[in-house]
Amino acid sequence: MRAVTFDGPRQMSFVERPTPGLIDVGDAIVEVRLAAICGTDLHPYRGELKGLPRGAITGHEAVGIVREVGSQVRAIGVGDRVVLSDVIACGTCRACRAGHHYQCDRVGLFGYGTVVGDTAYDGCHADFVRVPFADAVALPVPEALSDEQAIFVGDGLSTGYCAAEAADIEPGDVVVVVGAGPVGLLSMMAARAFGAGLIVAVDPQESRRAAAGALVADIALDAGADIADRLRAATGGGLADACIEAVGNDAALHTALELASPHAVIACIGSHSSAGTPVPLVAMFARELTLRFAVGDPIRVRDRVFQLLENGVIDPLPLISERVPLADVPAAFARFDRGESVKVLIEP
Predict the structure, then answer these.
(1) Domains (range + CATH), the chain
(2) Which residues does the UniProt record annotate as the domain Enoyl reductase (ER) (predicted)?
(3) Strands (E), 137-232
(4) 112 near 295, Cβ under 8 Å?
């Protein structure tokens, strides 16, 4: 089969690989019909995270058709259309039964090596992918949804939903989202669905601020000096009732903390790699802020996210900026890394 592999920081190859087969009785083999590039993919692509070996097949977002199932798979069958949860979880351990799939004893992430968990799983930038724990990980797609809608459920939109949920957004709230990349934009859409009254996007890139303003944000501000004063001027004097940090670096986290009103929740969904991020504890204590980390959990929230899509409450399709064949994925990664794309879909 054809596949795309990671060959070192900012190096990828289009290669031929053996088609995967069943290994465990709970596996499924899925033929990929649609895949995508995610902002989370950029961390190992840039060499920021260790654990992704050279030669690994990349990608953790896919919609496809089930072509083979193990003898113990019950929830899906051959011919079913499924979207894959980016988080691989067994579905049966104590953490999974509590709905905490990212803390599964056997957690993993497609195409991410051992950055998450102790087992490396090939990704979905390929013609076929082996899906472990298929009853939990392969999510049947409602007939009313297109492949393009469904692919957002496997990671980005579910992550945005979990961000809005973690931020304790209430109707009418001023919500600031730091980072207007794909997950930031989807978090804004989810925040709107939760009842946010005013959505403010904060991003240093002019193109991303423009995209946020066109798609969902009421206000888009440049990050940097005097950001708190500029937010007060834009809102009539107030700061954020809830903040979502959707970047995953120290600067973005500090911006979110600076923009939070007293008693606000700051929900961090950016993938942080720092082992020692300094935070302004004195100010956080004085303002009684809550700093909360959240990971998108498609297995837990899929039904609610499917319903938002089916009812037309959220429409993520305008985020799609580029469609490429599998052979062009290395070049598409480079464009995405430079901020020239919003959401890249891959049509094998």
Answers:
(1) 2-155+297-346 (3.90.180.10), 159-293 (3.40.50.720)
(2) 8-346
(3) 138-140, 174-178, 198-202, 219-221
(4) no
Q: Across-strand partners of 344?
A: 37, 322
Residues, the chain: 348
Give tens-digit pLDDT for 29-42.
Answer: 999 999 999 988 88
CB 140 within 8 A of CB 82: yes
Average pLDDT on 117-137 reads 97
Query: Which string of b and e fits 199-224 if b means at least 16 CB within 10 Å?
Result: bbbbbbeeebbebbeebbbbbbbebe
Cβ-based neighbours of 278, under 8 Å, separated by 6 or more:
250
Kindly tell me the number of DSSP H helices and DSSP E strands found in the chain: 12, 18
Q: What's the whole-number average pLDDT of the chain?
A: 95
At residue 185, the 3 state secondary structure works out as helix
Helix H segments across 244-343? Answer: 250-258, 281-287, 298-310, 329-337
Q: How far apart are CA 47 and CA 40, in angstroms?
A: 12
Residue-wise pLDDT tens digits, 266-286: 999 987 767 777 788 899 999
Residue 290: Cβ-neighbour burial (10 angstroms; 0-12, 13-18, 19+):
middle
